[in-house]
Amino acid sequence: MKKKQVAVGIILLFVGTCVVPINAIATPSSQNFGDTTRLKIDSTPPYVILTKPQKGWWYLFSLERKSPLSDVILIIGKINVTVNATDTESGVNRVEFFVDDVLRWSDTTEPYFWIWSDKKPFSSCILTAVAYNNAGDKNSDTLKVLKIF
Q: Can you tell me the distance from the alpha carbon of 69 to that of 138, in angstroms, rounded to the nearest whole number?
């Protein structure tokens, strides 16, 4: 009885004068003949969006209120930052949370979230969520927020 093998590796794609690594996963298929295998290359970045906080909302400890100022995001106290991240080809590997380009948390399981509980004076911050898929592609979403302890 002959066993089928599954190959996982990195393919180097020569584009012009540079070499671009591409992650690929090869799996046996019932439609394959002999020892051939089909390769599927995932070069599409994952979908990612910060779902909380949202533009136009104020978060006062555990209360959420529509802001009288259209796009201003105000956070007073801790908040559960949530992200929707999906990738239909290779799946989401992880979501990283950044404040002002400093990594604060990494989450590898759904639902993707981080409890932001800094205790610092009033400041303007850039909140970024970066999602990575299992092929190494990434995508991000960014919000400017006003944060008070």
A: 32
User: What DSSP line would sit under 48-114, residue for residue?
Assistant: EEEEES-TTEEEETTEEEE-SSTT--EEES-EEEEEEEE-TTT-EEEEEEEETTEEEEEE-SSSEEE
d(CA 17, CA 10): 19
Within a domain: 25: yes
Sequence-distant contacts of 15-22: CB under 8 A, at least 24 apart: 21/136, 22/135
pLDDT tens digit sequence for 22-34: 555 555 555 655 6
Helix/strand/coil for 41: strand
How far apart are alpha carbons 149 and 145 in whole angstroms?
13
Q: pLDDT band at 149, cuts 50/70/90?
A: confident
CATH number assigned to the domain comprising residue 63 = 2.60.40.10
Q: In this structure, are 18 and 70 located in the same domain?
A: no
- Does residue 98 have a pLDDT over 60? yes
Q: Check: CB of residue 42 under 8 Å from CB of residue 135.
A: yes
